[in-house]
């Protein structure tokens, strides 16, 4: 097997490819011949040592995979062999590889209507959003939903989900290219970050019902101040690298709420492999039915992991990327 290895925290260009013997699954596990691995901003943070959870060195990045079951361990149904499945690795890292070992209860069959590349690209960003709308916040038809960072993977997934639930989406992104992609994905309008509070109010009237914020930084407070009465500000991450200090008085005024959406923590501490598998089943059913329409990802070879993660960390990437092994 071949896999990408991070031997020191730092620039993604230091990642290297190693070849070694293919492992065998233990009891309760399956061996996946990997077709595609999803790539995310979190992956770039982990490689650079900037994520809140640091895997011990050396490690293989990547959390999401789609591939074919090639072997099963003791206690696992042999009928899984040959099936195309998707999943999230246990712990952190391991998917940037030609083969992945994972627990059998954490995989889900991928419908024939969904390509391996699209499935892999959708897992991390869309599972965050599926978790968010099923466990943390409700989107009602007609809601005005503002999405910060709408040109990235998480932002585009929120745009798509909110559109599918009947919301009117105001996308916020830094470039014309990213704004165009957000509109293509389902946003009613896309704006930049200049005069953000006023622009949101112009587009929503009395203010936003929900803000989804994977960005942080100064934009977070501007968006919070643009919430309507009873509005909800959903914190997903801090892609800007700046964790904001949101003023509590603005939350108090007009009975606003700040809600954290941390799928990763839920996945590790509560949901576990079976919880992720259930979310994946929900996600793929929505995609196969046409309710969700993820944009096609940019496909790169596994050996290009360092280059792709560099683009993502420097915020030059648009949309989602996947690494393929063939």
Automatic annotation (TrEMBL):
<dbReference type="Pfam" id="PF08240">
    <property type="entry name" value="ADH_N"/>
</dbReference>
<dbReference type="InterPro" id="IPR051397">
    <property type="entry name" value="Zn-ADH-like_protein"/>
</dbReference>
<feature type="domain" description="Enoyl reductase (ER)">
    <location>
        <begin position="10"/>
        <end position="323"/>
    </location>
</feature>
<dbReference type="Pfam" id="PF00107">
    <property type="entry name" value="ADH_zinc_N"/>
</dbReference>
<dbReference type="InterPro" id="IPR011032">
    <property type="entry name" value="GroES-like_sf"/>
</dbReference>
<dbReference type="InterPro" id="IPR020843">
    <property type="entry name" value="ER"/>
</dbReference>
<dbReference type="InterPro" id="IPR013154">
    <property type="entry name" value="ADH-like_N"/>
</dbReference>
<dbReference type="GO" id="GO:0003960">
    <property type="term" value="F:quinone reductase (NADPH) activity"/>
</dbReference>
<protein>
    <submittedName>
        <fullName>Quinone oxidoreductase</fullName>
        <ecNumber>1.6.5.5</ecNumber>
    </submittedName>
</protein>
<dbReference type="InterPro" id="IPR036291">
    <property type="entry name" value="NAD(P)-bd_dom_sf"/>
</dbReference>
<dbReference type="InterPro" id="IPR013149">
    <property type="entry name" value="ADH-like_C"/>
</dbReference>
<keyword id="KW-0560">Oxidoreductase</keyword>
């Amino acid at each position: 097997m071949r896999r990408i290895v991070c031997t020191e925290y730092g620039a993604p260009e230091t990642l290297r490819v190693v070849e070694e013997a293919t492992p065998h699954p233990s009891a309760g596990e399956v061996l996946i011949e990997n077709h595609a691995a999803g790539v995310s901003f979190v992956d770039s943070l982990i490689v650079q040592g900037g994520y809140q959870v640091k895997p011990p060195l050396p490690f293989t990045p990547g959390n999401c995979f789609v591939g074919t079951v090639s072997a099963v361990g003791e206690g696992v149904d042999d009928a899984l062999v040959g099936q195309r499945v998707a999943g999230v690795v246990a712990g952190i890292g391991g998917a940037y590889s030609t083969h992945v070992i994972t627990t059998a209860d954490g995989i889900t069959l991928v419908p024939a209507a969904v390509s391996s590349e699209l499935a892999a690209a959708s897992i991390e960003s869309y599972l965050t959003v599926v978790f968010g709308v099923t466990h943390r916040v409700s989107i009602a038809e007609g809601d005005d939903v503002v999405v910060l960072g709408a040109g990235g993977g998480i932002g585009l997934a929120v745009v798509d989900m909110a559109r599918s639930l009947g919301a009117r989406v105001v996308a916020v992104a830094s470039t014309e290219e990213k704004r165009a992609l957000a509109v293509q994905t389902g946003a009613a309008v896309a704006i930049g970050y200049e005069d953000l509070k006023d622009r949101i109010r112009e587009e929503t009237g009395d203010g936003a019902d929900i803000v989804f914020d994977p960005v942080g930084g100064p934009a977070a407070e501007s968006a919070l101040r643009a919430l309507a009465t009873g509005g909800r500000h959903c914190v997903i991450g801090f892609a800007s690298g700046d964790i904001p200090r949101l003023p509590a008085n603005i939350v108090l005024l007009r009975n606003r709420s700040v809600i954290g959406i941390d799928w990763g923590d839920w996945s590790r501490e509560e949901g576990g492999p079976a919880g992720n598998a259930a979310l994946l089943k929900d996600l793929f059913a929505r995609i196969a039915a046409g309710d969700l329409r993820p944009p096609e990802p940019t496909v790169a070879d596994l050996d290009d992991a360092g280059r792709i993660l560099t683009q993502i960390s420097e915020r030059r990437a648009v949309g989602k990327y996947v690494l393929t092994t063939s």
